[in-house]
Amino acid sequence: MKHFIFACFFGLTVGTAQADLRIFATVPEWGALAQEIGGSKVKVYTATNAFQDPHRIEAKPSLLAQARQANLVVAAGADLEIGWLPLVLRDSGNSGIQTGQPGYFEAANFVNRLEVPATLDRAHGDVHAAGNPHTHLDPRNVLKVGEALTARMAELDAPNAAAYRSGYQAFAGKWQTAMARWQKEAAPLKGVPVLVHHASFVYLLNWLGMKEVGVLEPKPGIEPTSGHLTSLLARQQSTPAKMVLRAAYQQEGPSQWMAGKTGMPAVLLPYTVGGTPEAKDLFGLFDDTVQRLLKGAR
Amino acid sequence: MQKSFAMAALLAASCGAQAASDADLAAIRAQIDDMKKTYEQRIASLEKKLAEAEDQAKSAKPAAEVKAALATVAVTPAASASARASGFNPEVSLILQGQYKNMKDVAERGITGFVPAGGHDHAAGAIEGINKRGFSVEHTELVLAANIDPYWRGQAILALADGEVEVEEAWFQSLAIGHGVGLKGGRMRSGIGYLNEQHPHMWDFADAPLMYRAMFGEHASYAQDGLQLKWLAPTPVFLEFGAEVGRGANFPGTDRNKNGAGAGAIFAHIGGDIGASNAWRAGVSYLKTKASERGAHFEDINGAEALGAFTGDSATWLADFVWKWAPNGNPKYQNFKFQTEYFQRREKGDLTCSDDEGVGNTCDPLADGSSVTSGYKTRQSGWYAQGVYQFTPQWRAGLRYEQLDSGTRDFGANAANLVVDSYRPKKASAMVDYSWSEFSRVRLQIAQDKSMFGITDNQLTLQYVMSLGAHGAHKF
């Protein structure tokens, strides 16, 4: 009744059949995964690109317009999008994608999160209470999220449930094979110590058995300072790193400075789909990431 | 939950062994049936897994993937169960804001040619707060917000100042209506204009544009107790329409003892992206309210004080435009923001001129309590434009220029008694600010303020804005 009144009020025709499941993905990696699973049955809108810091997006009008029409919001979760997504959801007037509804999906809920802080204090920077949100760079997490996402898509769009399941099966099969290949190729990276710009690569390093020995940001979300970089440089004597990693959306200055002072390579990683020309899809993302790491470690 | 964990373990074990007997499978099926009522959805996927596992057992494939999936299913509820009761407390944030200000000592700071919103109580100055020189702590803002239930969200913004707590906003907002409809009720800042909904800590300059002060007074924002209905169109271009009705107690209206709505507003917004790097929004708004004996301080033709009380209609049009640029749409390192707004206000009614101070002004020359009532009709306008450039993650710089036009002011018969100022107030400001993080900022602003006739006031403001607590999300 309530719906009927509002529909009449605005002269709308509600309930027109929708062929596609419209997915609003906050970040490229989960948009790409939804596309792999859904294929032609879904229409995926990705709110950000690989050159945007997902922490610092604004609740732009275009995002509101897209969220308004989405059936499913796929977010990274763990507070990554806290500065903009809650506002987009609330102002979208879309009841199906609110927190707690089937149309709201957070990838971080389906993986074991790392770096969950024991104490919550902004003196430690912009820490995420639910742990490090950059979960996708461990390919095992991609499978876990994929499975949960498939179930969610099947729930929301029952007529296409079989297609989503077979889409996921096909993806998972290829992914298992690729994962075995990456693990084999990346074997020499085990134990390699690295510096990172921001703690964006925790899951990647954890998967490959690499060691993070320092972060260029003095605290999460605070840009590198010369004092902090100098102290990292001094530490290079006792705990030497072999390369310094940054994501495509991060400034190159600090890692170039570090590289120049120490002679170690500054390695740009795509971080997500679209971050480099090679990282065209999720497979390309990991292919390219492993290749760039191997090149850096040489 | 324990049951499902046991189930998962049992399944995993039986699959792992790859030699599940018929009896085992029958037992598992029985258990599944038992749990079906409560765990219908999860069980559906488990059953599927079980079937797959049986197939896989025949073809002797490893069941590792199945095991991992089952582990995930079993672990998920455990994680959410760890939430404590205090987790239901609202999100709390506190804004600390204060400043040092250097400016001329002007007894009754106002805007020449515009009726002061602060009324005729000139003990505290026509526009309170902005009159303070030297060090001062502006009001401290306490924000409490939470989802009330699956259908509603609530938020309160309390302004704490010496000896008082002011409820700036206190509203509920719908979450579950759908179809692009958003309903808000309570005390809220109106959706008109661009800057109107923004609280001072979100401003890019240390003070509000003259235009907002002329329109709405000290708070530089129109707020009222009432209802707001918004509708977002299902189009790829952002298209939003809104309507509000409310008490209309604030300037330019006055509180009136009546049933029904005291003020109404409508607005429309359109916006979108141009490439990855540009985002924009434009809007038009209209506010209609009524005033009843809205008192303001005037000057009579001999320079004596007079009280003018306006009764009539007040209608305001606003147009706003905002454009934001950031390379590749990544505002963290560099971005630019341009915003501009224009307003026009028409007021029509009666003006009653009297002598409340007993100074013997032209409205009441014999000081016998008489007054003069005449027609009153005004048409006034103003605009501002500003640009703010963030050139490193920490530093931003901005310029703002603004101008008002006192326009036509027809005081009818009272034109013979009162001074009718005609003036174009102007102000130019430049600011630079530094942010240690998203949560702390200091700002230095210099401004040349010619909002009062015959006075050029060079102002310097050093301001801090700090936010504690929950990570707020800011509007575009």
Distance between the termini of chain A: 67 Å
Overall pLDDT of chain B: 84
Unreliable sequence segments of chain A = 4-18
- Structural shape of chain A: globular
Strands side by side in the biggest sheet of chain B: 1-3-4-5-6-7-8-9-10-11-12-13-14-15-16-17
Helix content of chain B: 10-25%
Please count the beta strands of chain B (DSSP E, at least 2 residues each).
17
- Largest interface (CB < 8 Å): A-B, 63 and 62 residues
From the 3D structure, determine the CATH topology of the largest domain in chain B: Porin
User: What do the pLDDT scores of chain A average to?
Assistant: 91
Q: Helix count of chain A?
A: 10
CATH architectural type of the largest domain in chain A: 3-Layer(aba) Sandwich
How many domains would you count in the coordinates of chain B? Answer: 2
Structural account:
The complex is a heterodimer of chains A (298) and B (476). Chain A has helices at 2-9, 28-38, 61-68, 85-91, 139-156, 161-185, 202-208, 226-238, 253-262, 282-297, and strands spanning 21-25, 42-46, 72-75, 104-106, 193-196, 211-215, 243-247, 266-269. With 298 residues, chain A is of the alpha/beta class. Chain A has two domains: 2-110 and 124-179, Rossmann fold, CATH 3.40.50.1980; 186-297, 3-Layer(aba) Sandwich (Rossmann fold). A four-stranded parallel beta sheet of chain A has the order 2-1-3-4, covered by helices on one side. In chain A, strands 6-5-7-8 form a four-stranded parallel beta sheet. Chain B is of the alpha+beta class and 476 residues long. Chain B folds into two domains: 2-82; 92-469, Porin, CATH 2.40.160. In chain B, strands 1-3-4-5-6-7-8-9-10-11-12-13-14-15-16-17 form a 16-stranded antiparallel beta barrel. The relative contact order of chain B is 0.11. Residues 5-20, 57-82 and 122-128 of chain B have low confidence and may be disordered. Classes of the chains: A alpha/beta (298), B alpha+beta (476). At the A-B interface, α1, α3, α4 and α5 of A face α4, β7, β8, β9 and β10 of B.
